[in-house]
Amino acid sequence: MEIINTIGRRKTSIARVYVKPGNGLIIVNERELNDYFPSEILRTTVKQALTIVKADGQYDVTVNVEGGGNKGQAEAIRLGIARALVTINTEHRPPLKKEGLLTRDSRMVERKKPGRAKARKKFQFSKR
Fold first, then answer.
1. 69 dihedral zone (left: phi>0; alpha: psi -120 to 50; beta)
2. Which terminus has fewer CB within 10 Å in the chain: N or C?
3. Which among 78, 62, 91 has a CA at the least distance from the CA of 9?
4. Quick check: helix, strand or coil at residue 89?
5. Predicted model pTM
């Protein structure tokens, strides 16, 4: 099997994911997963697709991710890994789809409008 290449996106983060057979090593931006994501919650988010299909130690994952913050990057990587697993074996699709890992979360930050404090918040009204 050759290297599987997929893309995952979330908020403003874009993750290019490369999956190949191996022993479970995950490298993000040329750093190990534990170094890149110090939070256990974010590491669990990244590994969630592999855990669901019980492929924890079977594949090496290399990721180039840019944009956004920690959570957006972790969820973009998760989507990329899930898509790669479906490409490798179509039997992985139903459990991943059931958990909602194959759906791109399209929610973005609403832009700030002129004449407003933030996107929707207004400045304090003064009658006099």
1. beta
2. C
3. 78
4. coil
5. 0.91
Residues in the chain: 128
Which tokens in the block code for residue 126?
């003064």
Tokens standing for 52? 């669901």
CA angle (104, 109, 110) in 5-degree steps: 120
Q: In what order do the strands lie in the sheet with 13-21?
A: 4-10, 13-21, 59-66, 26-28, 31-32
- Is the CB of residue 59 less than 8 Å from the CB of residue 20? yes
Tokens 């190990």 belong to 32
Q: What is the pLDDT along the chain (128 residues), one digit of tens a residue?
A: 789 999 999 999 999 999 999 999 999 999 999 999 999 999 999 999 999 999 988 999 999 999 999 999 999 999 999 999 999 999 999 999 999 999 999 999 999 999 999 999 999 999 98
